């Protein structure tokens, strides 16, 4: 299945666009999860929530909802992947409260962190086999055969990323699931994606991954509700390929209840 969502759900400028004006913010997660089947949680990068928070997210969302979680910056940006045992153990002690709702763990590396495949390998070893991990390096020195071999050996996905309609990383397939982040499109109103750019990414995903391999797609272009609109457009294009696709809103309007089953 292609699972389509957004990077986060608590954006004030989505009120009146995606969230009805009268809906209290404490119910936004329920509204979101009725219309999307997955979300990428970025705030864990800045401050790791307590285990009770992860457990509450599980209790408040449907059985078919998955939460991808961005790893704490303490490991990636402060420790810079050194001494990963304690940060990974602390992260997992909390995030695993999601149970089977836990999607991939995102390791986004600093743009000024040059390649260190051995340290990356030591970090990935700390994750149990049942936890999917996606890695987003951002320094060009990582694009080597050695890096690719580490990801393949540890069955971690290289994050495919887009900015302004262009890939910013190699499109390596390193394991049996995909992870795509779309940061900023070139269409108007900014930062929307146009149909040609979305269709290109649909084609790349379906060429690389089989129908029974999950591909997680998250729109990070949140201003003005662009992520919601583009996620729905991407899902519509993906369905035309015959692939199963997770639910998305029927449109970007506030109060839209046409969540429907996948593929509807």
The low-confidence runs, each spanning 5 or more residues with pLDDT under 50, are 251-264
Give the averaged pLDDT, no decimals: 93
Helix content: 25-40%
The CATH topology is given as TIM Barrel
Distance between the termini: 14 Å
CATH architecture: Alpha-Beta Barrel
Region (Disordered): 240-264
Pfam family, one: DUF72
Protein name: DUF72 domain-containing protein
Biased composition (Basic and acidic residues): 255-264
Give an account of the 3D structure.
The chain is α/β, with parallel strands linked by helices and 264 residues long. The protein has a single domain (2-239), classed as Protein of unknown function UPF0759 (TIM Barrel, Alpha-Beta Barrel), CATH 3.20.20. Helix content is 32%, strand content 17%. It has a 10-stranded mixed β-sheet with strand order 6-5-4-3-2-1-10-9-7-8. Helix 6 runs parallel beside helix 7 (145-154) and helix 8 crosses helix 9 (226-239). The chain starts with a strand and ends in a 25-residue tail after the last helix. Residues 251-264 have low confidence and may be disordered.
């Amino acid at each position: 299945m292609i699972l389509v969502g957004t990077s986060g759900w608590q954006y004030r400028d989505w009120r009146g666009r995606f969230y009805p004006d009268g809906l209290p913010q404490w119910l936004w997660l329920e509204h979101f999860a009725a219309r999307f089947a997955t979300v990428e949680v970025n705030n864990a990068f800045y401050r790791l929530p307590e285990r009770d928070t992860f457990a509450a997210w599980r209790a408040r969302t449907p059985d078919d909802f998955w939460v991808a979680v961005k790893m704490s910056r303490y490991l990636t940006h402060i420790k810079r992947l050194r001494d990963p045992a304690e940060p990974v153990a602390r992260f997992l002690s909390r995030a695993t409260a999601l149970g089977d709702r836990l999607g991939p763990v995102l390791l986004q590396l600093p743009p000024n962190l040059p390649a260190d495949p051995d340290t990356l390998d030591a970090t990935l070893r700390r994750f149990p086999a049942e936890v999917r991990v996606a890695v987003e390096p951002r320094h060009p020195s990582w694009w080597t055969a050695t890096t690719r071999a580490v990801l393949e050996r540890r069955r971690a996905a290289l994050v495919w990323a887009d900015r302004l309609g262009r890939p910013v990383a190699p499109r390596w397939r390193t394991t049996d699931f995909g992870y795509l982040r779309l940061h900023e499109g070139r269409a108007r109103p900014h930062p929307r994606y146009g149909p040609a750019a979305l269709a290109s990414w649909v084609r790349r995903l379906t060429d690389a991954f089989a129908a029974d391999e999950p591909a997680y797609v998250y729109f990070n272009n949140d201003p003005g509700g662009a992520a919601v609109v583009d996620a729905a457009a991407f899902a519509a294009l993906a369905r035309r390929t015959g692939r199963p696709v997770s639910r998305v809103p029927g449109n970007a309007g506030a109060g839209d209840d046409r969540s429907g089953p996948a593929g509807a």
